[in-house]
Design goal:
There is one protein chain. Helix content is 44%, strand content 20%. It has 318 residues and is an alpha/beta fold. It has a domain at 1-24 and 112-184 and 195-240. Helix 1 packs across helix 8 (197-211) and helix 6 (114-130) packs across helix 8.
């Protein structure tokens, strides 16, 4: 079903961004992740003593952790996430209610504002519109590296400048993880998402144009250009996020990230470019801590798309 067509340019940009923010998986993750959830939950329980306080970072709906089992084991649990409604769904999903021992703490791990994302959406939309096949004729160039500059140079330059300015203005952002007094924390599959919103918006802008009957040329080139600009800043975002975690947690950390392998429906293993870039940085950061216990298991990210990751999970003492 095609999305609603918005005619006013400012409203169109806002609509695309709202659609991106409201995105939800078409998979039944609670059902599909049952095996992964059981293994990860048992690993967490085996690592931390009964009655300890636990911070779950990027908790979402707790599709990957059995909140009821953890609530029975831990003294207090804090769900940390950007959107309060996800915690409400997690409580409902497990038949639990928020209390002094089970609560939610809102936290933004990145600090890039809605206004920044809207400015980026506007400029990327202009760039993609310039690359529509029904607009100006394609300018043929021998060097594929020049294809975007020759066909949408000014728009692409403004887009890159916008991204660099967003990252620059974000350098001094401080992450607030609430009480900053937790015994243990769990953070799995979060690092890969820290710097992924710009590339995620790419797909929503593309869909908006295609819903209007447009066809965009050089999509792979444009996607690569955006990734090359954003990935330079991934390490800084991961480092700041980890520093906030280390500052808030006293005893130990269950730390998990996607390995750089994607499992396709055909069973092939292919390198992943970009989508788990933050996960690679996460793996490098945790290498300095000797693992007390480790676990590799399959995370069935999307049944519909047939995508599974090997998750590398480690328990480290701080």
């Amino acid at each position: 079903m095609k999305s609603e067509i918005i005619t006013t340019e400012a409203n169109r940009v806002q609509h695309i961004y709202d659609q991106f923010k409201a995105r939800s998986s078409k998979d039944d993750e609670f059902k599909d992740w049952a095996g992964y959830r059981e293994r990860l939950t048992e690993f967490v329980i085996s690592c931390i003593p009964s009655g300890a306080s636990l911070l779950i970072l990027g908790a979402g709906k707790c599709n990957d952790l059995d909140l009821k089992k953890l609530a029975q084991h831990c003294g207090t649990i804090t769900l940390s996430d950007y959107q309060p409604e996800t915690a409400e769904e997690a409580f409902h999903q497990y038949g639990l209610s928020p209390s002094e021992n089970l609560k939610f703490a809102a936290s933004d791990y990145v600090g890039i504002t809605d206004e920044d994302y809207l400015a980026y959406t506007d400029l990327l939309l202009k760039t993609m519109e310039k690359l529509r096949s029904d607009q100006e004729p394609q300018i043929n160039v021998q060097n594929q590296g020049d294809v975007l500059e020759k066909n949408a140079g000014p728009e692409l330059s403004a887009l890159r400048e916008c991204l660099e300015q967003i990252y620059k203005s974000n350098e001094n952002y401080e992450i607030d993880l609430g009480d900053k007094d937790y015994d243990y924390a769990v953070v799995t599959g979060v690092h890969s998402q820290l710097n992924n919103s710009f590339r995620g918006l790419f797909q929503y802008i593309r869909k908006d144009i295609e819903d209007r009957g447009g066809e965009i040329r050089f999509l792979d080139n444009l996607n690569t250009a955006i990734f090359q600009t954003t990935r330079k800043h991934t390490k800084d975002l991961v480092t700041r996020f980890n520093d906030a975690i280390f500052d808030a947690v006293r005893e130990g950390l269950i730390y998990g990230y996607e390995k750089n392998i994607i499992y396709t429906p055909a069973g092939a293993k292919e390198p992943v470019i970009g989508t788990v870039d933050g996960a690679r940085q996460a793996g490098e950061a945790i290498a300095d801590f000797p693992a007390e216990k480790s676990l590799d298991c399959i995370w069935p990210l999307s049944r519909r798309r047939g995508i599974k990751f090997t998750m590398s999970i480690h328990f480290v003492l701080l």
